[in-house]
């Protein structure tokens, strides 16, 4: 696999690996934490919630009580469909290889989102390139999670317990 990466792409990948502190998931985790939301990582849930012990697609952040998940997607691997996204461009060599690979990735992502929605989970996808504007991302997350929190409060009478039993 690695061999098929273009030189340009490889150096980009290496840069991603080495810049641990700016990893997109970490940025989103920090934002959520700062907003007071607690979460589990990589789709982990109890077997009661999902028999496999994890949710379809291993969402990056799981907000169990709110039945909500956030995926933080790299624009390249997950092929961000936004026209303005430069990071999602298909490399110029091995076009066929990449096209097929990306088709599979996109299909898998769509299948996972659908599966999650089918079992009653709310989903939000944050794209890597969106992180250029952290305030916008913060608002997006806030809107997404706060609306679920209100729903949760309306249907639950053990909120006080929840506040202490944060994921
Ligand atoms: Zn993008």
Can you tag this structure with a few keywords?
5 helices; Endonuclease, Chain A; binds zinc ion; alpha+beta; 167 residues
Annotate the secondary structure layout:
Layout: H1 7-18, H2 24-34, E1 40-41, E2 61-63, E3 68-73, H3 95-118, E4 122-127, H4 134-155, H5 159-164
Parallel strand pairs: 3-4
Antiparallel strand pairs: 1-2, 2-3
The structure holds zinc ion.
Zinc ion is lined by residues 75, 80, 82, 85, 87-88, 127-129.
The arrangement of helices and strands along the chain is: HHEEEHEHH
Strand percentage lies at: 5-15%
Biggest β-sheet strands, sense, barrel: 4 strands, mixed
Bound molecules: zinc ion
Total beta strand runs:
4
Distance between the termini: 37 Å
The radius of gyration is 18 Å
Count helical runs: 5
Oligomerization category of the chains in this entry: single chain
**Uncertain regions: pLDDT < 50 for 5+ in a row?**
158-164
Structural summary, described in words:
The protein has 167 residues and is of the alpha+beta class. The chain has a single domain (22-164), classed as Endonuclease, Chain A, CATH 3.40.960.10. It has helices at 7-18, 24-34, 95-118, 134-155, 159-164; strands at residues 40-41, 61-63, 68-73, 122-127. Bound molecules: zinc ion.
